[in-house]
Amino acid sequence: MIWTPTETQRKLESKILAEISKDELWKHVEHLCSIGEKFAGSPEEKKACDYFVKSVKEYGVPIEVYEFDSFLSYGRGPGDKAELSVTYPENFSVKCQSHAMSGSMPLIEEELVDVGAGESKDYEGKEVKGKVVLVDFAALWAPERLYIAQEKGAKAQITISGDPVIHDMVVTTIWGTPTRESSARIPKIPIVSVTNEDGRRLRELCKRGPVKVKMMVEVWRGWKKVRLPIVTIKGAEEPDKYFLIGGHYCSWGDGMTDNVGGDAIFIEMAKIFWKYRDQLKRGVKIAWWPGHSQGRYSGSTWFADNFWEDLNKNCVACMIIDSPGVKGATRWSSHSSSDLYQFNKQNTEEYSKDIMGEKIPVRHSTMVSRSGDQSFTGIGLSSLGSGSGIPADSPLRGKTTGGSGGGWWWHSLNDTIDKGDKDLLPLPMKMGMINILKVCNSPILPVEFEPVADDYLQVSKELNEGARGMFDVSPLINRAEELKVEAKNLEQYLSKLMSRYEKFETEEDKERFEEVFKAINESLLKMTRILISTFNTQCGRFEQDPAIRIPPLPVLQPIKELATLDPKTDDARFLKTGLIRERNKVIDSLDRAIDIAKVIQSIKV
Ligand SMILES: [Zn+2]
């Protein structure tokens, strides 16, 4: 239900926008860049943490710092080593570096096999057992390609950067700290990366005939103490409820564009929200995550694990800010989980012209974006945010990047302060604060479920086609249609309630409505939890899916594989049995959401 802001809210928005100062932001940027590279668990990371604490305390903002051990690795830290040379048909050494979480290996000499992009299909017809594979670097999905190489029996991997620089990366497919079960996925084989130029030379050699390389890798992996500073500003009317804002502060290089700009924004947001805290119905929590860059999101997952109950019950939505204020990054976009699509669209259309100078496009993507520290989809938190990228034809644009607005310097020592843009940095902060303020102050939370039902419908229909008659998807399609109807009914019910509330005559009337809204909001949150986690995750609400590409309704995707199998085989029958169980789970999720929508509508005010 999207709320039409009152005059008071409009004034608050203007006051808050006027408080945002690019000079204040840049002061933090300069300091944080001057600290240098902020590896998780390093003295530099601690210096940054101390700076956040000191900066917000000057304004009286309450901040806590959680300290815990985190499973980390650097790839090119003190003591890490990597060597690579070609020994046949030519003799030369190649500049290379390894990556965080790589396996280690003493010096070996083996044949090099080019497997192109390094996807599973690229291995067809190639014998790689015990050999070294040559693969294109794949930014955020580099870990997936290393995992594939390991599964195929390769001894080691060399990746080719798309750019003149080698991009740093953490190459484990485990999201956050491993569990006993997921620890089996910690990389066993080593990896090094080479520049684009060197990589092409290796590729050319492979085209001409057999190539042999000598290679060694030694990479540290282990536990170090990290610090998670978090500001809590309680809301004036619903002190337990909060909007979660966060982004990482560990970095590769100085980290100007990934993510010093975000860290500066958090300090300023904390100051401004604190100043206007008596005008916030619900509060905010602002977190600087450690262990993102060198622990594969270990800070945000630690928070998700250890504050699961509170997040589940009280967090109304979240926003991840990663890589704002990048030089040349003028291509804006806005995204959200589907329940906030209409809300985000309306605000972005209304405010982006003033803030960004153009109406920026709003994506209705069926999946919640997993970039940044999106460790909260399992819990089922709604999320929204905006981002900006460098246009594809710009010389600043890199080819294999996964952040920094696509800048070629992403995840390298070149991510220095000159890659930032002081004028662009405040813009996503302004857009973000408008959205956050509205979520915090909306009498009824601004979630809507028709776009969510559309996602379920669209993917169920795709699965139905993919099943080619081998699996019955119709119960799912029916439920998704039912959810769509109930979502519409719910919206009508809530808007009627809202227009009655807006005309309240006595203070008692107002309070009576607001009490009811609290109960309604609790139910709306339950609906988001169920629908977001079921649609977006394979592992459900208490685990973290691996850091590999996950399709929508992942538990049902093997339906497409079933259609390719002989139905009489054991394999097909076993798969079908599992799929029936998964279908039951999804239907149950939809049923529970439909029931909640009906119960809300039965509330008489
Ligand atoms: Zn980042």
Report what the structure shows:
This protein is an alpha/beta fold and 605 residues long. The chain folds into 3 domains: 7-73 and 224-331 and 380-441, Aminopeptidase (3-Layer(aba) Sandwich); 81-219, Glucose Oxidase, domain 1 (3-Layer(bba) Sandwich), CATH 3.50.30.30; 450-601. 41% of the residues lie in helices and 17% in strands. It is built from 15 helices and 15 strands. It has helices at residues 7-19, 22-34, 43-57, 142-151, 196-208, 256-275, 298-306, 308-314, 341-356, 426-441, 450-467, 474-502, 507-536, 558-562, 570-601; strands at 63-73, 81-88, 92-93, 97-98, 105-114, 132-136, 156-160, 191-194, 212-218, 221-233, 238-248, 282-289, 315-320, 331-336, 384-389. The strands form 3 sheets. Strands 3-2-9-5-6-7-8-4 form an 8-stranded mixed beta sheet, with helices on both faces. β6 (132-136), α4 (142-151) and β7 form a beta-alpha-beta unit. The longest helix has 32 residues, at 570-601. The chain is globular, with a radius of gyration of 25 Å. The mean pLDDT is 96. The structure holds zinc ion (ZN). Residues 248, 258-259, 322-323, 403 line the site of zinc ion.
